[in-house]
Amino acid sequence: MSPQDDLFGNALPDAGSESPAPEPARAFRPLADRMRPQTIEEFAGQTRVVGESSPLRVAMEKGQAHSCLLWGPPGVGKTTLARLYADRLQAEIVYLSAVEAGVRELRAVIQAARDRRSASGRLTVLFLDEIHRFNKSQQDQLLPSVERGVLVLVGATTENPSFSLNNALLSRLRVYRLEPLDQPAMQALLERALDHPQGVLETTGGVPLRIDPEIRNRLIETADGDARRLLTLLELAAQLAEESEDGSLRVVGEYTLESLLQQAPRRFDQGGDEFYDQISAMHKAIRGSNPDAGAYWLLRMLDGGADPAYLARRLVRIASEDVGNADPRALTMALDAWTAYDRLGVPEGELMLTQAAMYLAVAPKSNGVYKAHNALLATIRERGSDPVPMHLRNAPTSLMEREGWGKGYRYAHDEPDAYAAGETYLPEGLVGQRFYQPVDRGLERTIAERMAHWAERDAEAGEGGSASG
């Protein structure tokens, strides 16, 4: 190797000579960015928020500025809508992410907004993404500027603002809730991307892309209402598509599709709104005796990555809260399903959880135990520490026996039918109260009949007590 060679044997340029400048790399812009709507008419879906005569659409058309919060899942147009709003207001837009920005960055934006308004009268729109990640003190920094109109705040969040934003800031914002895009909106978005010069045609070098209707539908279904995900999948499909024999087309076949859609995640956010909405739907469906819907929501959450142990715990709770003593086997079924899942794992264990959910749904329902539990807790917290009646206390020593511990207690097994008619078991101030009220369904029908019989015997005993007292 000569001194003029580098370590790999490549000739080095002569001293003083200039190496040829590399070709400038073409700036890469993802399809989702290239297809970002330029006008409100191109905006996909969200007719409730930006449709004709909607409050935000009217404000945009009239150039009326107000601070607002765009609340919705990823990929539904929050950033695009903020930019279109700023364009209509002819305002300067500044983008910040609460993940990266802090108080210093906020103060710089606010000062620049003041200077801009003083110098030219131009308004500033601050688009603050992931606003829910700001803590209370950071949110408070925004209050004076929003209140005085120094800037227009457009916040974006995927989290429920009722829990993530403080009331002082929330009261100054108009909240617009964006939904996942529906099938027609996603279909229109896909068609536009296929035909637009800056869409798929730019990715394929101008060669049209052919996607059969059934494959288009599967792409839309997989995107799950997320426009960004749909365009990302479409761009990958265009890159992986095979050329037709004559080179006039690129074709997305079944093989290409399967390679894209393997383990595509459903919309699910452990611990977020989507999680709590779905767990609520599952619980209410089972309570409403609909086995199909109960199992559907259970499997939706499992498919989305929910913790199976959490779902098993919820089934156990339903067994007690909503079925109770109308069918005590429900609790055993739920616990057995949990154990089976722990032993078998995926996928076999999911079948046991589904079985338990369906059993709970078709079982007779009673919230008698649940209501009694809550009523008893409320009474205990209200009354404090009522003393144990003397006849119910044990007397392990002779002194306690002389002092009256256990005096007058009647051993139930020595009584007719093992029931001490007229005996009381609650503290003095609660004697005669009934907390557990069995329903006329399932096993509780028999329990109710038994308790009514005991009440009759108490009345005959002349003590005026009850089975629960």
Layout of secondary structure:
Layout (H helix, E strand, L loop, with lengths): L30 H4 L12 H4 L4 H8 L5 E4 L6 H11 L3 E6 L5 H18 L3 E6 L6 H5 L2 H6 L3 E6 L3 H4 L2 H4 L3 E4 L5 H13 L4 H4 L5 E2 L2 H11 L3 H14 L1 E2 L6 E2 L2 H8 L11 H15 L3 H14 L3 H16 L5 H16 L3 H15 L5 H16 L14 H5 L40 H18 L9
Parallel strand pairs: 1-4, 1-5, 2-3, 3-4, 6-8
Antiparallel strand pairs: 7-8
The SS-based structural class is alpha/beta
Q: What's the name of the CATH homologous superfamily of the largest domain?
A: P-loop containing nucleotide triphosphate hydrolases
Strand order within the widest sheet?
A: 2-3-4-1-5
Query: How do the SSEs run, as a string of H and E?
Result: HHHEHEHEHHEHHEHHEHHEEHHHHHHHHH
Description of the molecule:
With 469 residues, this protein is of the alpha/beta class. The protein folds into four domains: 46-177, Rossmann fold; 183-261, Helicase, Ruva Protein, domain 3 (Orthogonal Bundle), CATH 1.10.8.60; 273-362, Zinc Finger, Delta Prime, domain 3; 387-460, post-AAA+ oligomerization domain-like (Orthogonal Bundle), CATH 1.10.3710. The chain is built from 22 helices and eight strands. It has helices at 31-34, 47-50, 55-62, 78-88, 103-120, 136-140, 143-148, 161-164, 167-170, 183-195, 200-203, 213-223, 227-240, 254-261, 273-287, 291-304, 308-323, 329-344, 348-362, 368-383, 398-402, 443-460; strands spanning 68-71, 92-97, 124-129, 152-157, 174-177, 209-210, 242-243, 250-251. A five-stranded parallel sheet has the order 2-3-4-1-5, sandwiched between helices. Strands 6-8-7 form a three-stranded mixed sheet, with no helix packed on it. α5 (103-120) links the parallel β2 and β3 (124-129). It is elongated, with a radius of gyration of 34 Å.
